Amino acid sequence: MTAALKQATQIKIQLNVVKGPHAGQSFHFHKTPLTIGRGPENDIVLLNDPLVSRSHARIDLNQNVFEISNLSEKNFLMVHGEVTWKSALVNDSIFQIGDCELKFQYDLGQAVVSVPKEPHLKLHNPKTNTSVPTVKNTAVSQQSSMPPGPILQKGPASQPRSQIGKTAEAKQGQMRLLILAIVVVGAFAFYFSQSRSKPKAVKAKPVLKYEDEIAVNLNSTKEKELQKKLKADRDARKSPQFARAEENFIKGMRDFQLGNYARAQDFFRVVLNLVPDHALARRHLYLSNVRFDELVQAKLVLGESNYQKHNFSMCESLYRQVMDMLQGRNNDQKYLLAKNMVEKCQLAAEGIR
Question: Which pTM was predicted?
Fold first, then answer.
């Protein structure tokens, strides 16, 4: 009978950070898929790299071939110095996420094949039929117990005994044939049940070589669209309009870092007018609005605190700062509140409350 083969492998994956804020770190895994990003839910956490997205990349094992995919819509993924959305990884592959370069190594392990023992068939020897000797003994005992009579001839007496022996031997032969037939039928039934339950061997799908897979990816529609988009981005960066946008973005970042959030908002708006899809300008415009509102609210709270402490000169100064920050927003509720409190602080400083 055929023996079923069992195969088991154990994956070993190692990633070493060779460059970037996390240089020197090493990660070891025995599973797939693996996720990379800044978020704590990832398998590989690159928290110190600001250019890494929360969920940036994913490594999968597909038919003994490792593939890495870009999960971020804002930040890039580079494999062997080329920007890509999805690419195959081999041993010692280098890929870059943000400012970090990682070296990928793996070992798929050796297959372990185990062959189960084949079941053995046992033939049971039939028990000998002891009924014939018993018949002979009873016949002899009956003859010995009978009184002596006339002497009988040997010919007629020996004929029944030989017929009884032949009948017993025939019965033993039939029993042996019956038992042997049962054993043979059982063996055939067991063999056919094993052959039907045996799973069919699954043919392994052909795996493309690394060079062939790269060629297929480069010729795919998605890859062509990505290359076309990257080329358009490079051409746009060379235009005078993009240069003006970058100049205003640098000025806006300088004011943003100095705390001049109102001026920073103006510069970021200019950038978005020139380049509408400038992601960093849009993000910092939002942050400038949030921090500007927080600063105005903090000055209002501090001015109210000084008013309650009868420090009217400081109170008036803080509310005037709010009016200067909200200059041009005469209908704003915070501007009207600051203007009203300036008058109150002036009157309180003169002794009129």
Answer: 0.36
